[in-house]
Amino acid sequence: MGKRKKQRRGGQKTSPPAPRPNRVPWIVGGAIALLAAAVIVIGVFRPPSRPSTPSPAPAPPAPKVEEINVERLVGRWLRPDGGYILQIRRGHANGHLDAAYLNPRPINVARAKWQRKDGTLQVFVELRDVNYPGSTYTLDYVLEQDRLVGAYFQAVQQQTFDVEFVRQK
């Protein structure tokens, strides 16, 4: 057959087939119509919203550790399980603390420092005295409760204990 036009019986030529209508605009238009209908239906059949009830005012965000002043550590702290006292007199910008430890008599504080670590304000105290050969406290300041919480390493027994200090009023 090739490119020759097919002839009907009787010698008449057939007319070329009618052009196919372009369906893309119809498909696109139909999709847009369906999408519009879905938006309307979802809006109409959305569950009714509950009447708004006044909610309590949100709590102010907790201050970031960077905003907590080291002077918050200054004070007399009592360890309730034994009556031990950690007295912090001053915090220096370089991380050092002026501190004393009483049980009930003074125990030598070899070093005391503070730092910002893992989102908390942390206190480290090392004791060097008779029966305290390198015992240490590693404490986190808990702002919401105004407490020092952490671990006490008892060097003589080589044991670590969970401890807390509360501020004395």
Residues in helix, %? 10-25%
* Mean pLDDT across all amino acids: 82
The CATH architecture classification of one domain is Beta Barrel
**What is the SS-derived class?**
mainly beta
The CATH homologous superfamily of one domain is termed Avidin-like
Per DSSP, what share of the residues sits in E-state strands of 2 or more residues? 35-45%
Name the helix and strand elements from N-terminus to C-terminus, one letter apiece.
HEEEEEEEEE
**Biggest sheet, spatial arrangement of strands:** 4-3-2-1-9-8-7-6-5
CATH topology of one domain: Lipocalin
Low-confidence stretches: none
Number of strands: 9
CATH class of one domain: Mainly Beta
Essential attributes:
nine-stranded antiparallel sheet; rod-shaped; mainly beta; Lipocalin; 169 residues
Structural write-up:
The protein is mainly beta and 169 residues long. It has a domain at 68-167: Lipocalin, CATH 2.40.128. Helix content is 12%, strand content 40%. The protein is built from one helix and nine strands; from the N terminus they run H-E-E-E-E-E-E-E-E-E. It has one helix at residues 24-44; strands spanning 75-79, 84-91, 97-102, 106-107, 109-117, 120-129, 132-142, 147-154, 159-167. A nine-stranded antiparallel sheet has the order 4-3-2-1-9-8-7-6-5, with no helix packed on it. Strand 8 and strand 9 form a beta hairpin. The longest helix is centred in the N-terminal third of the chain and has 21 residues, at 24-44. The model has no long low-confidence stretch (mean pLDDT 82).
